[in-house]
Write a structure and sequence with these properties.
The structure is a single chain. With 381 residues, the chain is α/β, with parallel strands linked by helices. The chain is 40% helix and 17% strand. The chain has 17 helices and 14 strands. It has helices at 23-30, 49-58, 68-75, 102-106, 112-121, 136-147, 166-171, 184-190, 200-203, 216-221, 223-240, 244-255, 264-271, 302-314, 324-331, 334-344, 369-374, and strands at residues 10-16, 39-45, 63-67, 85-90, 96-101, 127-130, 157-160, 177-181, 194-199, 210-215, 274-276, 282-284, 356-357, 363-364. The longest helix is centred in the middle third of the chain and has 18 residues, at 223-240.
C-alpha cells in the first residue's frame, strides 16, 4: 500500500507494558509500518496491567498490548466492571518464564518436582507472584504448580506484582518466585537473585502470549482503523523474524529509555532463543518468543481464548459456567483479522481451533471446555 500523507494519518493511542513481547508494536511505529496503512501509532508506556485495563475502559487508550486472560476477565466482569472487549490479534507466543529465588535454588529447588519436594520437606508460607489475577502469568503459574501436585490456592500465597518490580521483590525476599514475561526472568539471573525453573513454552508449547486488544465499542465504531493496526503489526512481526540483524536491531530499540529502559543484553539473548537458567543449564530454545511464524502466531484462535476461561473457572475466578464458545466468538475478531491478513498477504489457518498438549500430558483442543475445566484433580472447590 502506498504511504499515506502525514496530514491524513489517523492517530491511534496504543498502550504497552515494558516487556520484550511488545516488540512488534514498537517496531511498527519505529519502522513506519503504521503509516503504510494510514495510521500513526502513538505508544504509551504503562506501569501496571490494571492501568492498561482502566485506560482501555475509559477510552484514554484506543488499543493496547495486553494480557490475553485480562481481556476475558474484563469481558466476563471478573473483579471489575464488565465491559465488552475485542481481541484483534495475537502479538506473540512463548517467551515467559517461572523464576525461583536463588535461596530456593541453593536448597535444591530448581524445577517443579524439586520445588514440590522442598515444600513438602520444609512447610512454610511460600509466596509466588504473577502480574494480574486473570492474566496469562497467573494461569500458567497455577497450572505449572498444580501439575507438580502443589495447590496454588491452599499451599501457597499468590501476589500481584507489576513486571518491573518482580526482580526487586525476589531479591528482597518478599517472594519465593514469580511468573512474568521477559526480560525480567533474565534480569533475575543477571542480578544473581533467581534461576529459571521452567519456561512458559515448556508449560504449554506455542501458547498464546499478549494480544492487541481494544473495546468492543472501538472495534464496532472504527473497523478500518482496527484492520490498519493489525496489518501494520503483521508487517512488523514479519520484519522482526526476517533476519538475525532485524532481531538485533529490535533488541537495541527495545532497550532504549522510551521502551524497556534496561540493558540490551538482558533482552537480546532470549529474544534470539539463547537460554541460561542461572544454574548451569544453557540451551538454544526452538520454541522461544515468536512474533509471526508465517502468521501462525498472530491468528486469534477461539480455542486459545476458551482455554483462559477454563482456567479462570478451574480456580474459582468464574463461579458460574460461561458460554465458552459464544464468548470466544464475541471477543476474538476473526473477520477483522482476516481482512488485515488479506491486506498483508498473511496466511490464515483453516480452522479457528487448535490442539495442544500441556506439561501434565493433558490435551486441549476446545472441543469440551466444560469437561476440561472440571477434569483437574486440583481446583478451587
Amino acid at each position: 500500500m502506498a504511504e499515506t500523507k502525514v496530514n491524513q494519518l489517523r492517530t491511534v493511542r496504543i498502550g504497552f507494558m515494558p516487556l520484550t513481547d511488545c516488540a512488534s508494536l514498537v517496531m511498527a511505529a519505529e519502522c513506519g509500518f503504521d503509516r503504510q496503512y494510514g495510521i500513526r501509532i502513538v505508544l504509551s508506556r504503562e506501569t501496571s496491567w490494571a492501568n492498561v485495563r482502566d485506560k482501555l475502559g475509559s477510552g484514554a487508550l484506543d488499543a493496547a498490548h495486553v494480557l490475553y486472560g485480562l481481556m476475558y476477565g474484563v469481558q466476563l466482569g471478573i473483579g471489575c466492571q464488565q465491559q465488552a472487549m475485542a481481541v484483534l490479534m495475537n502479538l506473540s507466543r512463548n517467551g515467559q518464564a517461572v523464576t525461583l529465588s536463588r535461596a530456593l535454588a541453593q536448597q535444591g529447588a530448581l524445577d517443579g518436582p524439586s520445588l514440590a519436594q522442598r515444600m513438602r520437606d520444609l512447610p512454610r508460607a511460600y509466596t509466588f507472584a504473577h502480574t494480574f489475577p486473570t492474566g496469562n502469568h497467573a494461569m500458567l503459574l497455577y497450572y505449572w504448580l498444580a501439575a507438580h501436585g502443589i495447590d496454588p490456592l491452599r499451599q501457597a500465597r499468590a501476589l500481584t506484582v507489576p513486571p518491573a518490580q518482580m526482580v526487586g521483590s525476589l531479591g528482597a525476599g518478599m517472594i519465593d518466585g514469580f511468573c512474568a514475561g521477559e526480560p525480567w526472568g533474565q534480569r533475575a539471573i543477571d542480578e544473581g537473585v533467581g534461576v529459571t525453573a521452567v519456561t512458559s513454552q515448556q508449560i504449554w508449547p506455542d501458547h498464546p502470549g499478549k494480544v492487541l486488544g481494544t473495546t468492543a465499542a472501538f472495534a464496532a465504531s472504527d473497523p478500518d482503523t482496527c484492520r490498519a493496526m493489525i496489518a501494520a503489526v503483521l508487517d512488523a512481526s514479519r520484519w522482526i523474524e526476517a533476519s538475525r540483524a532485524n532481531k538485533e536491531q529490535t533488541a537495541t530499540v527495545l532497550a532504549g529509555s522510551a521502551y524497556l529502559n534496561t540493558g540490551r543484553a538482558a533482552i537480546a539473548a532470549r529474544l534470539a532463543g539463547q537460554y541460561d537458567n542461572g544454574a548451569g543449564g544453557q540451551w538454544t530454545d526452538e520454541k522461544a518468543l515468536s512474533f509471526h511464524a508465517d502468521g501462525e502466531v498472530n491468528f486469534p484462535y477461539l480455542s486459545d481464548g476458551m482455554w483462559f476461561m477454563t482456567q479462570q473457572r478451574r480456580w474459582g475466578l468464574l463461579r458460574d459456567e460461561p458460554d465458552y464458545l459464544g464468548q470466544a466468538q464475541a471477543v476474538n475478531r476473526i473477520e477483522l483479522y482476516k481482512g488485515a491478513a488479506e491486506m498483508t498477504g498473511t496466511l490464515v489457518p483453516s480452522s479457528t481451533m487448535r490442539s495442544s498438549t500441556l506439561i501434565d500430558g493433558v490435551r486441549w483442543d476446545g472441543s469440551d471446555p466444560r469437561g476440561y475445566a472440571e477434569s483437574f484433580p486440583i481446583h478451587w472447590r
